[in-house]
Amino acid sequence: MSYRMHVGALAASITFALSLAAPLDAAAQARPAGVQAQPAGGRIHSVRRLNTRYRFTPPVRTVDALKTTMSRANIQRDLGTLLDQAGLSSIRAEVIRNLTEGTVTPTTIAPGTTVQWMAERLRGRPAVMRPARWDGRAPFRAHQFVIDDRINTYTFVVPEDCGNLTLVTLEPSREAARLAAEAARAEAARAEAARAEAARAEAARAEAARLEAAKAAEAAKAAEAARAAEAARAAEAARAAEAAKAAEAARQAEAARLAQEAKDARMRPFVAGYFGKQQRQYDATDPADLGIDSNPVNRYGDPLIGVKFGVAFKMSDKWSFNPAIGYSGNLEENERSSALLDAEVAYNFGKAYLGSGITVWDYFHKDITTLGWLGTGGFPIWKNDTKKHQMDLSFEWRQFFDRGSDPDVNYMFWAGVRYMFK
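^ thats the sequence. predicted structure below, dont judge the formating
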């Protein structure tokens, strides 16, 4: 016998002796599943290494590798054998679909995790090892997918290192539980709606009875009121004659008062104070004499404080003509302070007013004097009914016609209070 044959026989004898002496857990360390496909007495197979000679497929460390491997005809045949052994033939098509289409998510299995079963190969044939526990030193990475057939929910993983299809958990169908809960909620809602409808019907009957009783009581009350009214009619006739005389006297006095008020309201002087800003473009005649050398057309935004005096001439119950003069003090460049003349026509709504007209702005500086459109508005914030004085919150806008092609930089606005005298 040759030297090689002696060595081979000796190695085989040693391996056989160790296999008889080693416990189940030690045998499992040499492969990713136990030696027995179905251990007796519910013993748990301890799996400590993956990618051994008992692996179900070569490593499938990417989704593309998983799809390619599981699309092979022989692998799909062996998957069917595994699922038949596990009693899961009914979900064979769904398992293969998830694996071949790659509808999986990445996950890890921690040491100490017990699974329902794990696939392996014994003498090249597919087998199911159940139950099993991962006792490796570190978590292993795997592809995970879940199947719910409305009876059970199955959570599967495929380790990246060996392709051993593994059923991690088997639990009652989550989807069936969700649908049952939805059906229960719908039934409860229908019952609640029925109770609410019954309550509404009962309330309607009670309300009808109450209205009928109230109607009868109202009829009795009306009859009693009619008798009382008839008894009082005679006395009322006497009082009416006296009241008519007094009313006529009061009417004449009110007419005289209103006539005097109308006369007083035809001309009402007013004074107003404002705060706001102006936006102007100036050319070489700019009174502040700024920027002429570098830019002959400048624009400036300056804060203003102003005062205005005028008279409101009443043209009708709603319309008034309000000419005014005023002065606008420039808080940034005193040389740009302006005098103004306004011709405003206002419409009075009772609680507010709106006006429009023409303004002459900056008429003390003849080279930059400009006409402009005047828009006004306001509403009362205080009145003295005895003296007929009134204070308004007032707003004014002026759009200057000079350099009208640039309206966004040739305007001013301010707001303040206007005090109207009697």
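The chain has six helices and 17 strands.
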